[in-house]
Write a sequence for this structure.
């Protein structure tokens, strides 16, 4: 009976990355197989058989506005099946693994995963090259994301949105401005500190405080940062590892401060002016979620039209205004400035961080065994 | 009597099997086959975390590995589930007793109230606890208003004034979520008791306590037995309560299975943990049934 409840739960529209990791739990039902995913996916098969063109995109929740989706269908005549089943990289990986490792196709024509996971899929050979020749707007990709570390040739992935990882905190509860990763380890806030379950974000931030570069960290170099987080768990400093639900804990006063993503806190601060997001003095993290095409997908042409649509600055600006993270498309800032409604966003340092912002990506070149060492150590700490 | 039964059975010999077949088929497809796969995977080696290719190698090391790595989490899970089960008996038995013997014409209404929480998703109920038990939530507000916070800290229910992310939050959540599974079977067994037997005990000069101990309690034991199983078994494999109400130090074995399967992609370890859990619970239930002498209703 519980499983059934959980499955219903998965279908609830959770905010992006909400319950990340935790959701892996009740998504167990989804993981039962592609058939259930297909059931969630809708009826694109019917459209295909009717002779129309179709496209199936799996993305994170709250990552696309309805207007853009409708506009795409209207302009291209392509029937779009857009799902928000991606709640967590590992969890989504577990759902596609049985098919792709077997050489079978999956339902989605495009899915959006974070850079480090994109690298894994590219290395495994489970994704096809993108039809970039048919995506003229791809030239609008911001310079900093051309040939990224996870995809050095730039042939397999096209970024969807990027974001920053820093510290969110409640000014009133903290009683002062927080500026440093060290504040997360301040005994004054014992039991009131949250860390993200996503290792790259949490570990990355502590690595920066330790002066280790997350872009090239080895397991050995990460040792002290792991130990530090582990000690903070065992002495009760860290109360909980969360996904996007850190927002609830911040608002409810369970957390004074936590590791958090950039886009969310800006929105929350509208209602709770005491909440603030800060890139710590030691530096923050930047990550990107990126579009990928699983091996053997048939709707290549439709996929190209989708990418082209999303990389049009006007469309990209509409999506960015809805999402609130960092758009990978040049010209978005100018587009946002054009409309009175969105002009304020164009000046947001969270959406358009200044070039001086000290942020790096967690992108060490790890082979499978090294990555497993990281994952195992992290699992040991988060479920001790 | 027996002879006629035999004959009718012989005449329509296929009928019982026909009636059984949907259940047998169901169990074979959805229990035996997966169980076989589970055993196989638990004894295999997985070449890569990212591939689902297993070679069956009688890898008993999987079992010793997970036992040494997660042994303490196994113990913790059974501990939490055990305490939650005891609390369920302590809370549920009086409830069932009251409904069965004192409920009168409100009996069905009261039973309905026991079941009402099921109209809301299990997950939603657990998440509701997160709000209720939050640091600034209504429960702790009340505790502080009554100046009981110090006392609760003292006896270890709260940790530094907080309830969430502690073991008692997890145990409390388990108790709350599984309580109806305790109340209903106990109610059924109590309700079947012929009240004349209790009267007879009184006629024979038994006091209330003694007639309860000698008549009511033994006759309701099958209900307690069923209730404890329905509570303890799912509670020890539960991961929702630990996920939302517990902290990183209150992980239960269900969380580990989930993590091994869906995050770490270590199918062999996950399968081994699941099997160990099944074996321990099955063995425990058999011993328990023996002790309680209720094999016939098990």
């Amino acid at each position: 009976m519980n499983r059934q409840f959980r499955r219903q739960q998965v279908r609830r529209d959770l905010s992006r990355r909400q319950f990340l990791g935790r959701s892996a739990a009740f998504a167990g039902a989804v993981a039962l197989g592609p058939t259930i995913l297909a059931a969630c996916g809708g009826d694109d098969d019917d459209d295909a058989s009717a002779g129309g063109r179709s496209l199936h995109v799996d993305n994170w929740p709250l990552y696309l506005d309805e207007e853009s989706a409708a506009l795409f269908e209207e302009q291209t005549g392509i029937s779009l099946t857009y799902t928000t089943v991606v709640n967590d990289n590992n969890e989504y990986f577990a759902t596609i693994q049985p098919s792709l490792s077997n050489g079978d196709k999956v339902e989605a024509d495009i899915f959006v995963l974070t850079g480090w996971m994109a690298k894994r899929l590219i290395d495994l050979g489970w994704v096809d090259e993108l039809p970039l020749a048919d995506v003229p707007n791809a030239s609008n990709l911001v310079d900093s994301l051309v040939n990224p570390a996870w995809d050095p040739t730039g042939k397999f992935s096209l970024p969807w949105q990027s974001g920053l990882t820093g510290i969110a905190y409640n000014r009133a509860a903290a009683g002062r401005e927080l500026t440093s990763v060290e504040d997360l380890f301040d005994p004054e806030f014992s039991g009131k500190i949250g860390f993200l379950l996503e290792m790259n974000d949490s570990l990355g931030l502590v690595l920066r405080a330790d002066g280790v570069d997350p872009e090239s960290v080895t397991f050995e170099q990460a040792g002290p940062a792991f130990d530090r987080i582990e000690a903070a768990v065992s002495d009760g400093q860290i109360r909980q590892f969360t996904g996007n639900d850190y927002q609830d804990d911040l608002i409810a006063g369970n957390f004074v401060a936590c590791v958090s993503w950039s886009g969310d806190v800006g929105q929350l601060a509208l209602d709770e002016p005491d909440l603030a997001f800060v890139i710590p003095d030691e530096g923050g993290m930047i990550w990107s979620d990126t579009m990928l095409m699983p091996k053997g997908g048939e709707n290549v042409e439709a996929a190209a039209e989708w990418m082209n649509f999303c990389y049009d600055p006007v469309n990209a600006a509409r999506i960015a205004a809805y999402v609130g993270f960092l758009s990978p498309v040049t010209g978005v800032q100018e587009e946002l400035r054009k409309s009175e409604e969105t002009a304020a966003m164009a000046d947001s340092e969270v959406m358009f961080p200044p070039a001086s912002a000290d942020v790096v990506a967690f992108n060490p070149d790890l082979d499978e065994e090294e990555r497993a060492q990281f994952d195992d150590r992290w699992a040991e700490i988060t479920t001790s | 009597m027996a002879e006629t039964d035999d004959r009718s059975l012989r005449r329509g010999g296929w009928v019982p099997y026909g009636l059984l077949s949907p259940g047998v088929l169901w169990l074979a497809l959805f229990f035996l086959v997966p169980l076989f796969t589970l055993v196989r995977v638990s004894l295999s080696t997985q070449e890569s975390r990212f591939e689902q290719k297993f070679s069956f190698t009688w890898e008993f090391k999987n079992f010793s590995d997970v036992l040494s790595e997660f042994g303490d989490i196994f113990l913790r899970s059974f501990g939490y589930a055990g305490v939650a089960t005891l609390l369920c008996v302590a809370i549920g038995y009086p409830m069932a007793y009251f409904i069965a013997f004192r409920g009168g014409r409100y009996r069905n209404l009261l039973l309905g109230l026991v079941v009402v929480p099921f109209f809301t998703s299990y997950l939603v109920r657990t998440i509701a606890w997160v709000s209720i038990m939050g640091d600034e939530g209504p429960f702790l507000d009340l505790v502080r208003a009554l100046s009981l916070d110090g006392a609760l800290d003292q006896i270890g229910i709260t940790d530094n004034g907080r309830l969430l992310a502690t073991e008692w939050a997890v145990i409390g959540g388990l108790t709350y979520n599984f309580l109806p599974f305790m109340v209903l079977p106990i109610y059924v067994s109590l309700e079947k008791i012929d009240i004349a037997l209790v009267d007879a005990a009184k006629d024979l000069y038994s006091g209330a306590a003694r007639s309860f101990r000698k008549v009511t309690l033994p006759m309701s034991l099958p209900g307690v037995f069923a209730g404890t199983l329905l509570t303890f078994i799912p509670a020890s494999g539960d991961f929702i309560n630990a996920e939302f109400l517990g902290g990183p130090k209150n992980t239960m074995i269900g969380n580990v299975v989930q993590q091994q399967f869906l995050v770490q992609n270590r199918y062999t370890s996950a399968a081994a943990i699941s099997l160990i859990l099944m074996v321990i619970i099955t063995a425990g239930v058999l011993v328990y049934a023996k002790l309680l002498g209720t094999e016939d209703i098990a």
